[in-house]
Amino acid sequence: MGFCRKTSNAKEEGKKEAVYLRKKITLVRAITLTIGTIVGSGIFIAPKGVLKNSGNVGLSLVVWLACGVLSLFGALSYADLGTSITKSGGHYIYLLETLGPLPAFLRLWAEFVMIRPANIAVVSLAFGRYLIEPLFA
Fold first, then answer.
1. Residue range(s) defining the domain that contains residue 73
2. I need a labelling partner for 19 at 20 to 30 A (CA). Which of 1, 29, 62, 104 fits?
3. pTM
4. Per the domain annotation, does 30 fall within a domain?
């Protein structure tokens, strides 16, 4: 997304130009956003723990496959919600339309107070670990 300036008429030369964001997602940006959202940072942290706790490579691949199938079910559920509820707003609108205002409000506040900060903390810790590990290991 880049910033653009609206073109002005001759009458509006003395006024400030408005700055706005272009609503443009190219195919490459859409693919990288989708992969980044699906894969996230867990792919850099989880393989070692899964292999360590499963005991062998075959079982760890089965665990990864099972988790992939579960993720696929979640993605298909969101695809169905996204096509049947066309309003923008994500989780909030889906819960508002299906369960009512109270669950939607509670989910929104849980996202704001607990889920997003915890996610940012985990990603920051993983980034810090992988940034420092080559330098001091």
1. 43-84
2. 29
3. 0.58
4. no
**Over the stretch 24-75, which tens digit does the pLDDT of each residue have?**
888 898 888 887 777 766 676 778 888 888 889 999 999 989 988 998 898 8
HEC secondary structure over the chain: CCEEECCCCCCCCCCCCCEEECCCCCHHHHHHHHHHHHHCCHHHHHHHHHHHHHCCHHHHHHHHHHHHHHHHHHHHHHHHHHHHCCCCCCHHHHHHHHCCHHHHHHHHHHHHHHHHHHHHHHHHHHHHHHHHHHHHC
Residue 98 shares a structural domain with residue 56: no
Question: How many domains does the chain fold into?
Answer: 2
What local confidence, expressed as pLDDT, does residue 18 receive? 78
The answer to whether the Cα torsion of 35, 38, 43, 132 is positive or negative is positive
Q: Give the separation between CA 85 and CA 95, rounded to whole angstroms.
A: 11
Q: Do residues 17 and 8 lie in contact, with contact meaning Cβ atoms separated by under 8 Å?
A: yes
